[in-house]
């Protein structure tokens, strides 16, 4: 009898404890909508898209709350998030993208009359407010890719990579092999024109297109997110693309991708383009077979007031990269406290193992922007190529390097590309303070030349800047070609 009474008390106490928790979860302040209650099933042979959408719509209709995806494996196509809805992927929850083109026929992402090129997406939102994707679950897009060979003349005439491809041809290296996506080609997340966006802690795996694309959004937080795509063949599978957004904070993310890991863009769609401004990126680890952190190449509007700090770039083909081509300008940008490691990748990827490459080169007959007011400070870089700033179609202005150390490492590839430690070409008002180039003396490359090459520079200041000539090189450590107004201080 005594034990039965204790058991009864215990059961009653459990019920009393459960009821208020249930009421809080389902009640007025934080309602929760379980996708399985709306028909979603943990079965990757059956689509749960409609069930997910019903849960989102019900949540939005009730004023907002959380749509909960419990542990399980779900198959979906496009789900549209609505204002005031948090999609929470629980631990052990994976949402897989369908691999059937016909499953996406009801949704084709457009802005105005212009197709963005992103024909499928797993999770989308348009002009929504206060939306979020949280939890430690996964969005898995199941990308498929195949190899092909491009035409030689198309490769060699490319304005960005033409020099490198021509060099590969001289060495007899295959430069025609490449990869393309197999439809359908969904990205994981595409939010357009949204305000108050939060993406936290989720995993995004193997998108066919840009993994997380935020276009024309403001007041954005991306924190603790892990994004990955195949390093060898993951073409177009960028990690995080911030496109014409403002007031953005990116922190504590790990992005390991084939194409660009973290990229700021200002695309033009349907005649509309917006600047990227007020952007903070910190405490991230980035790896890419293309650029780890890139501004451009789509640059129809400006990039301004941007800081990147306390980051690690690991085994990227390009470390810090700006390619300004479409008339917009990049200005007021700070890079600080960054450790960079770069190495050469396959020929079809952009990059030479450069720790830093900034360039202005207009696209076709279009207008040309510029790069100005940029500071790089407290940077240690080990690279298989150089730090290079090249103002081709318009000069780069007001660049400062402070406490930047470059360690030149031998190239793994046969087609040697590396020449000088630092190349500055077409720059006005350039300052180097406490900078140094160090050569790998045990494994020197025969193509190495000068520690620094300054070409077409006006207004150069060197303060406690050091470097020796490369091992076995006939060139001086510091080389000047058409440089005006030089000031040096030990």
How would you explain this protein's 3D organization?
The protein has 490 residues and is mainly beta. The protein has four helices and 38 strands. The strands form three sheets. It has a 34-stranded parallel β-sheet that branches. Strands 7-8 form a two-stranded antiparallel sheet. A hairpin with a 2-residue loop joins strand 7 and strand 8. The radius of gyration is 26 Å and the shape is elongated. The N terminus is likely disordered.
Helix content: 10-25%
Q: Provide a count of the helices.
A: 4
Shape: elongated
Rounded mean pLDDT is: 90
How far apart, in Å, are the first and last alpha carbons? Answer: 92 Å
Largest sheet: 34 strands, parallel
SSE-based structural type: mainly beta
Q: What fraction of the residues are assigned to beta strands by DSSP?
A: over 45%
Radius of gyration: 26 Å
Short description:
The protein is mainly β and 490 residues long.
Reconstruct the topology from this structure.
Layout: H1 2-26, E1 32-34, H2 49-61, E2 65-69, E3 72-76, E4 79-80, E5 85-89, E6 93-97, E7 110-111, E8 114-115, E9 121-126, E10 129-135, E11 138-140, E12 145-149, H3 152-156, H4 162-171, E13 177-181, E14 187-192, E15 195-200, E16 203-205, E17 212-215, E18 218-223, E19 226-228, E20 240-243, E21 246-251, E22 254-257, E23 262-266, E24 276-282, E25 285-288, E26 291-299, E27 303-316, E28 318-324, E29 330-342, E30 354-360, E31 371-383, E32 387-391, E33 396-408, E34 422-433, E35 436-439, E36 452-463, E37 466-467, E38 478-489
Parallel strand pairs: 1-2, 2-5, 3-6, 4-9, 5-10, 6-11, 9-14, 10-15, 11-16, 14-17, 15-18, 16-19, 17-20, 18-21, 19-22, 20-23, 21-24, 22-25, 23-26, 24-27, 25-27, 26-28, 27-29, 28-30, 29-31, 30-32, 31-33, 32-34, 33-34, 33-35, 34-36, 35-37, 36-38
Antiparallel strand pairs: 7-8, 12-13
């Amino acid at each position: 009898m005594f034990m039965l009474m204790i058991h009864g008390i215990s059961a009653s106490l459990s019920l009393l404890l459960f009821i208020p928790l249930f009421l809080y979860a389902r009640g007025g302040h934080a309602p929760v909508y379980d996708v399985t209650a709306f028909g979603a099933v943990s079965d990757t042979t059956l689509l749960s898209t409609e069930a997910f959408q019903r849960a989102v719509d019900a949540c939005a209709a009730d004023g907002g709350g959380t749509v909960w995806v419990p542990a399980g494996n779900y198959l979906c196509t496009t789900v549209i998030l609505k204002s005031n809805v948090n999609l929470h992927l629980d631990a052990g929850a994976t949402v897989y993208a369908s691999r059937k083109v016909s499953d996406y026929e009801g949704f084709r992402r457009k802005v105005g009359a212009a197709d963005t090129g992103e024909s499928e997406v797993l999770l989308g939102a348009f002009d929504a407010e206060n939306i979020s994707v949280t939890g430690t679950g996964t969005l898995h897009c199941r990308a498929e890719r195949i190899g092909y060979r491009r035409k030689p003349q198309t490769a060699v005439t490319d304005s960005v990579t033409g020099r490198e491809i021509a060099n590969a041809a001289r060495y007899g290296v295959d430069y025609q092999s490449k990869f393309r996506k197999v439809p359908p080609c969904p990205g994981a997340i595409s939010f357009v024109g949204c305000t108050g966006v939060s993406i936290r802690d989720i995993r995004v795996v193997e998108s066919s297109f840009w993994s997380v694309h935020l276009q024309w959004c403001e007041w954005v937080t991306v924190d603790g997110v892990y994004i990955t795509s195949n390093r060898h063949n993951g073409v177009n599978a960028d990690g995080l693309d911030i496109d014409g957004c403002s007031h953005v904070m990116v922190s504590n993310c790990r992005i390991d991708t084939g194409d660009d890991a973290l990229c700021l863009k200002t695309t033009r769609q349907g005649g509309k383009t917006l600047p990227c401004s007020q952007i903070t990126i910190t405490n991230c680890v980035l790896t890419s077979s293309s650029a780890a952190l890139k501004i451009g190449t789509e640059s129809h509007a400006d990039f301004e007031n941007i800081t990147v700090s306390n980051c690690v770039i690991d085994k990227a083909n390009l470390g810090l990269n700006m390619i300004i081509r479409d008339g917009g300008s990049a200005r007021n940008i700070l890079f600080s406290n960054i450790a960079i490691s770069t190495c050469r990748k396959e020929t079809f990827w952009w990059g030479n193992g450069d720790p830093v490459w900034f360039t202005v080169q207009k696209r076709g007959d279009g207008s040309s922007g510029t790069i100005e007011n940029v500071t790089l400070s407290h940077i240690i870089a080990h690279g298989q190529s150089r730090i290079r700033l090249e103002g081709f179609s318009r000069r780069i202005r007001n660049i400062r390097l402070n406490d930047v150390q470059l360690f030149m490492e031998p190239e793994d590839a046969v087609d040697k590309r590396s020449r000088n430690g630092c190349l500055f070409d077409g720059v006005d008002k350039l300052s180097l303070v406490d900078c140094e180039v160090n050569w790998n003396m045990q494994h020197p490359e025969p193509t190495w030349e000068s520690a620094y090459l300054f070409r077409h520079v006006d207004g150069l200041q060197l303060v406690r800047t050091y470097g020796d000539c490369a091992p076995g090189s006939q060139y001086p450590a510091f080389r000047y070609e058409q440089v005006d107004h030089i000031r040096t201080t030990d």
